[in-house]
C-alpha cells in the first residue's frame, strides 16, 4: 500500500501531537501542585497516545489503515486515561492530611475498589463506543461462566465485602491494638481482602476480613488508648483485706508505664483454696507494653508483700483425720448384748463376742431390699441393729408367705454360716432402712481356731435347735444321723475344714 503526505500536512500533524502531549503534561503538573498528586509513568503514556491520536486525527490520511489506527489509539487513550483518574479520585476521596504534615491513606480496599470500577468502566466505554461491541449482550452470553466464577470466588468476594463494611463501620484504624481470637496485634494495613496485624512477638499475621466481621473484636484504642489491665494476687488468709489492699495498691502505683489517673484499684476477687485472691487493676496508655507492665506489677506486689511481712502462700492440701464413729461402737454394743442373750451364742464369753464382732462390718439396706434369698448359699449371718425385716418362705406355686417379722437384737442366717446349708428363707427389709451387723464365716473360723472347745458347744446347741425346728411336711436338710450332736460336730468340722472327729 502506498500513500503520499504533504510536508504541510506532516508538520500540522506533528505540531498537533506535540501540543496534545504538552497539554496533558501541563494539566498533570497543575493537578500535582494543587492536590499533591503523583501520577507516575501512566500520565506519560497517556500524553504520548493522546498526542499520536491528535496528530493522526488532524492529518489528511483517511485510508482504512488510518481509520483502524485512530480507533486503536482512541481505545488505548480511553483505557490509559483511567489510571490518572484513579489516582486523582483516590487522592480526593480516600486520603486526608494529618495535622503533623504528611498524609494517611484510607484502607487499600477502597482505593483498589475505586480503581477496578474506573478501569473496568473505561474498558466498557472503549468496547461499547469505539469498537461497537454490545457489552450487555456479551455479559448475558457469559452468564454461565459468571456463575461458575461467582462460586469459585465466593470466599474472595466475602472478604472484599467485609473489607468495605469494616471501612464504613470503622471498628478500628491503622495503628490500633486489637484482641482477635486470643491474639493481641497492632493493625498495620487493611487491604481489600485481609487485615494485617503485627503481634506482641513482632510476627505479621494476615487475618481475612470475613473472620474479623464474624468474630468479637476488642479494640484497646477506643474510645481512648487508656485502658485497664488486671493481675490476680493471692495473699494469706490471716492478713486483713483492708491492709492487703493498701499494700498492693502502693506497689501497683510504682510500676513504670502505669497511669497516675485513674489510680490503681485493688478488689477482693474470691476466697481460694489456700489464699484470698485480689484483683489488681491498673491503667496504661500503650497496649504494646501490657505484658511488661503485668510482669512488673506482679513482681512489685511480691516485693511489697514481702516487706510488709505478708505471706503469699503455697497451695495447701488439708489432711483430715477421721474421727471415731460412735455409731459403730453403739451398733456393736447392741450386737454384743443380743448375742449374749442368743440361744446359740449366749454361752460365749464377752471377750469372745468382742473378737467375733471385730471381724464384722455394719451394713445398710434400703426399704423392701432383699437381704438374703431362699435357696442361695450363705457365708455370713446378720444381727439387726435398727429397723425391721420380714422372713418369707416360698410355698405352693412360688407364693411367698411371711412366717416371721424380726426387729433390733434378732439374728438370722446363723445356720447357713455355721453349717453351709442353703438359706432356708428369704429376708426382706420392711418399712424403712435397715442397719445390721454382718458376721462372716471367717470370723467364726478365727474364733474356733482360738477356742476349739467352742465347736463342741455349738454342735450341741445346733443339733438341739434343728431337732426342735424340724417339720414333718418339709424335707430334712440333713440326715437323722447329722441331727445328733456327734453328727453336727462332724458337719461343723468338715465345713470349717478342721481335722479329727
Topology at a glance:
Blueprint: H1 7-35, H2 41-58, H3 64-94, E1 95-97, E2 103-105, H4 108-130, H5 135-141, H6 143-152, H7 154-169, E3 177-180, E4 183-190, E5 194-199, E6 204-208, H8 209-214, E7 217-219, E8 227-235, H9 241-253, E9 265-271, E10 276-284, H10 290-307, H11 326-340, H12 350-358, E11 361-365, E12 370-372, E13 380-394, E14 400-406, E15 411-412, H13 414-419, E16 426-440, H14 441-450, H15 453-469, H16 485-495
Antiparallel strand pairs: 1-2, 3-4, 3-7, 4-5, 5-6, 8-10, 9-10, 11-16, 12-16, 13-14, 13-15, 13-16
Give a structural overview.
With 501 residues, the chain is α+β, with helices and mostly antiparallel strands. The protein folds into four domains: 7-141, no CATH class; 154-219, SH3 type barrels; 227-307, Alpha-Beta Plaits, CATH 3.30.70; 326-469 and 480-495, Jelly Rolls (Sandwich), CATH 2.60.120. Helix content is 48%, strand content 21%. The radius of gyration is 51 Å and the shape is elongated. It starts with 6 loop residues before the first helix and ends in a 6-residue tail after the last helix. Mean pLDDT is 80; it is low at 96-104 and 472-478.
